[in-house]
Amino acid sequence: MRTARGILSRQHRREVPPHWVGGFYRPPRSTPTSTRVEALCSAYAMARDAGRAGDAAAILEGIRMSVRFIQSMQYLQAESRYLPDPARAIGGIRGGTRSGEIRNDYVQHFISAVLGARRIQLTAEIGPQSRLAPRTSPRPK
């Protein structure tokens, strides 16, 4: 739990540009945020199984904030239209708020983080009907 609290204490929550909320570092980057979500998903399960509802709730809020941030790093149709090969970029994950680069490790950690959060979302505590992090842009067709 100390590790989870340490992660959460360094998460951007307020007094930063709104698009930084949920991220880590200055400026925030996608992979450090995704890897922390991976860890927080394990910590959430541990807190839940140990009956530590307060810790589990705090961790879950941190997960939600970070998932919103890392989803904002994903190239959607609107964000990719000015790139050299827009169709190829769609679905890729940018390195951060100031990096347009897409790398395999950015995508892999993003997928692992989102899948971990989705597993939590499907548990009885949240319910599958609720949305963990609503999309702000329409999905490409």
Detailed description of the structure:
The chain has 141 residues and is mostly helical. The protein has one domain. Helices cover 52% and strands 5% of the residues. It is built from six helices and two strands; from the N terminus they run αααααββα. The chain has helices at 2-9, 30-49, 53-72, 77-80, 86-89, 104-121, and strands at 94-96, 99-102. Strands 1-2 form a two-stranded antiparallel ribbon. A hairpin with a 2-residue loop joins β1 and β2 (99-102). α2 packs antiparallel against α3 and α2 (30-49) packs parallel to α6 (104-121). The chain is elongated and about 50 Å long.
Distance between the termini: 41 Å
- Estimate the strand proportion: under 5%
How many structural units, i.e. domains?
Answer: 1
The order of strands across the largest sheet is 1-2
Number of helices: 6
Which spans have pLDDT < 50 for at least 5 consecutive residues?
none
Q: What is the average of the pLDDT values?
A: 90
Q: What string gives the helices and strands in order?
A: HHHHHEEH
Largest sheet: 2 strands, antiparallel
How helical, in percent, are the residues?
Answer: 40-55%
What is the alpha-carbon Rg in Å? 15 Å
- Total strands: 2
Alpha-beta content class:
mainly alpha
Instruction: Estimate the global geometry from the Cα principal axes.
Output: elongated
